[in-house]
Amino acid sequence: MPKPLIRLGGVLALCFVLWPGAVRAQATGLIRGVVMDETGTPLPGVTLTVSSPKLGIPARGAVSDGAGGFQVASLPAGTDYSVRATFPGFATVEFTDLEVSAGRLTTIRIVLQPQSKMSERVQVRAKPQIVNLDETTTQTSFSSEFIDALPILGRNYQDILSLAPGVTDTDGDGNPNIHGARDTDVITLVDGVSTT
User: What is the pLDDT of residues 50-104, one digit of tens each?
Assistant: First the structure.
């Protein structure tokens, strides 16, 4: 009679050894996929990284096999996984917001495009603003629409002069001071007509 007890004890010990792995397999999922070029030919040797910022999972690597297939297992359930595929001569592809469910398989198909097809050339041409060294004055223009929108009582144009940069009218007499210059150095034009 002792022999059946030994066998039963061995089976129970084996179940306890295998049980944590089975529980872990049910609590995690895996990503499986295939990588190919634009013609549908499998690409072996493609470097793949899988990561999840929310779960704090750093990039886990994999390399596609001869049939272009890859697999990354033991991934905790999450909804923000990203898969990045890189291969020399091809543009890098990244899939984001992939969902991995516990005990389930997530499959993706990655198509890599040649780098030459994906590159763009942007040419920007601009002429720098030329500073006139002979001109020592500054000017500010106010449109009639701007003046109409201001909450100013009356129609005196001198009420808006202090809105220009560097202009102050500390005593409120309508003779503004611009950047410390004398009030006699100011020229005010209303509709192109000097009011000096």
Answer: 999 888 888 889 999 999 999 999 899 988 899 999 999 998 999 888 889 888 8
Residue type, 185: D
d(CA 60, CA 62): 7
Alpha-carbon distances, residue 88 vs 43, 44, 79, 105 (angstroms): 11, 12, 29, 28
Contact 37, 43 (CB under 8 A): yes
DSSP 8-class letter at 157: G
Q: Which two tokens stand for residue 141?
A: 């223009």
- Strand 167-168 and strand 93-100: the pairing is unpaired
pLDDT tens column, 15-31: 444 444 444 445 788 89
Amino acid, res. 134? D
pTM of the complete model? 0.48
For residue 12, is pLDDT > 50? Answer: no
| Residue in the block written with tokens 């297939």 | 69
Q: Which residues pair with 109 in a beta bridge?
A: 34
Where helices occur in the chain by DSSP H, the ranges are 2-27, 115-118, 144-148
Handedness of CA 184, 186, 187, 188 (dihedral sign): negative
The pLDDT of residue 180: 76
Q: What CA–CA distance (Å, rounded) separates 181 from 191?
A: 24
Chain center to CA of 30 = 27
